[in-house]
Amino acid sequence: MSIINKFFKSFFSLMRILSISWKSSRKWTLLSTFFMALEIISGLGVLYLLKQMVDVVTNVLAEPEAAENVGAVLYYVVLTGLGTLAYVISRALAGFSRETQGIMVADYVDNIVQKTAISVDLAFYESPLYHDTLERARQSGSQRPAQVASNLMLLGKNALMLAAIVVLLASINWHLLPIILIAIVPALIARIYFTRILYEWQRRRTQMERRAAYLDWLMTSDTHAKELRLNQLGDYLRGKYKRIRDDIRVEKLAISRKRTTVESIVAAIASIIFFSSLGYLAWNTAQGENSVGDLVLFLLIFQRAQSMGQELVQQLSKLYEDHLYMGMLFEFMDMRHTVPRSSQPIKIAHPEHTTLKLENVCFAYPGTYKDVIKNVNMEIKPGQVVALVGANGSGKTSLIKLMTRLYDPTEGSVQINGINARDCDVDEYRELFSVIFQDYSHYAESVHDNIRFGHINGTDAEHTVPHAAEMAGAAGFIEKMDDKYDTLLTRLFDNGKELSVGQWQKIALARAFMLKSNIVILDEPTSAMDPVAESELFENFRERINHRSALVISHRLSTIRLADYIYVMDDGEIKESGTHESLFEKKGIYHDLFSRQAKYYQHDLS
Ligand SMILES: Nc1ncnc2c1ncn2[C@@H]1O[C@H](COP(=O)(O)OP(=O)(O)OP(=O)(O)O)[C@@H](O)[C@H]1O
């Protein structure tokens, strides 16, 4: 990339950072700008008054008998005192408004990150790149936009002050000017160089950091606590975590060591040059080419020049760092959908009578080349209960993801009432489905919310939630709990309660039974239920789902035989389809899959 391109890119990214800061809180951005401007003006004023005071003191030294000179000294002392007071107050107010603005910006950026995370397509979660980008966005820190705004102002302030000091130095002896450059430029180059090195290292190491964070989570979360203890995995995982952290630390310290060495050398050179200049000035003063006042002024302001120069270097390198790291946040914010959104979506006609049709659907997961769904044709008519069966890994769950547009097929189409799903509004389309996956969510929320999440925009939850619980066979155990529907389902927080796996499954089922959609999709809905609960559920299944269409995936014959129509998947293809009786008679895959189960049923019945 050419230097001009880089410059414009940096400029636009700086503008974008500032606009985030502005949008997050106009009031505090204005206030912190105002107080900082006041701080700068009073700071410069104090510097000017200091110079005037030194001049007057020099005069007094030259003509001690002039009484008005003493009055002038006092006058400048008072003015400098007042200026310093104004400086201290505005500095405190600027600090406070900067802090407040920082909090507002941090919340705003967190909000943007969350908004992006909940809107990106499922495909992102399956790519390590997404997780790296999210981690980097988080690392880039929500404080940075606020820092950039205040850094820019501090930079302006220090640049102005330094300019004033340069003028003062030039007034003493213009030969002294290069020392300012020597004190600042090499330090700046070293800082920027190492900021870049550290940034690139951090980018390369994101995945390593995530691996360490994952191991830490394995060791500390309740999800894995049982297996970790019984299989005594603790020491093994700790060792693995330590090795990663050791590698990260060694690499980081190596960079820090180099940086400290280079920066110390640069600072030592600057100091040598300063003392040489002091010697040069002292010599000139002794020769009568400078006044003693000049020497005093040089000593006075050099201290300031040095700290100002250091601050300037720090602010410039910080600005550079913030710009680099904010680039990582922008990368995350700029993620685009992989499931394309139609610009002029077609409204779904008669959504209450939905026919879902899959036509020659093929699909390979993003980043893979093997089709896991191959030329699938399928139909679910209004009110029909359809079963999908097949061995593990045959593609049943993948097919649900395609039906619900979590992914789009690589070939063929998914149609709803004859409209290609791609041409519908994604949100409107997804509203048609109530889906419970095998790995359904356990929300650490109340029972009520766990069920209501199945239809978050629905009204009358006070009635619909208990009804859904009743339909899913969950109402019985919910009513027995002290807080009933208000019971918090977690042991993470006070007064929470943990459920059994089967009870959780009933809660998840109740979520799908909330009357939001037209098609209920249940992936292994009864895998953890006892036989009584399972048979009760399917006894009057159609009434329970209010005669909506349903697609049920199950490995249990007792569940499947209830379906109006059955599709049999094998290695991504629909190999057989028909009613239970016709498929059994066919003596094909379906027969092989279920004849053993059927034998047990016959045996039990005999
Ligand atoms: N996110 C993914 N990325 C890549 N491949 C995947 C992904 N999820 C599943 N697969 C692959 O797709 C194939 C079908 O998996 P799928 O989960 O659809 O099977 P399934 O029939 O639902 O199996 P089960 O009965 O075990 O739930 C498998 O070979 C699996 O390895």
From TrEMBL:
Pfam family, one: ABC_tran
Predominant location: membrane
PROSITE patterns, A to Z: ABC_TM1F, ABC_TRANSPORTER_1, ABC_TRANSPORTER_2
Chain ranges of the ABC transporter domain: 356-596
Protein topology in the membrane: Multi-pass membrane protein
Residues annotated as transmembrane: 28-50, 70-89, 148-170, 176-194, 265-283
Superkingdom of this protein's organism: Bacteria
Keywords tagged on the record: ATP-binding, Cell membrane, Membrane, Nucleotide-binding, Transmembrane, Transmembrane helix, Transport
Any one Gene Ontology molecular-function term assigned to this protein's record: ABC-type oligopeptide transporter activity
Domain ABC transmembrane type-1: start-end pairs: 30-321
Cellular compartments annotated: Cell membrane
GO cellular component labels: plasma membrane
InterPro entries with a match to the protein in the record: AAA+_ATPase, ABC1_TM_dom, ABC1_TM_sf, ABC_transporter-like_ATP-bd, ABC_transporter-like_CS, P-loop_NTPase, Type_1_exporter
Protein name: ABC transporter ATP-binding protein
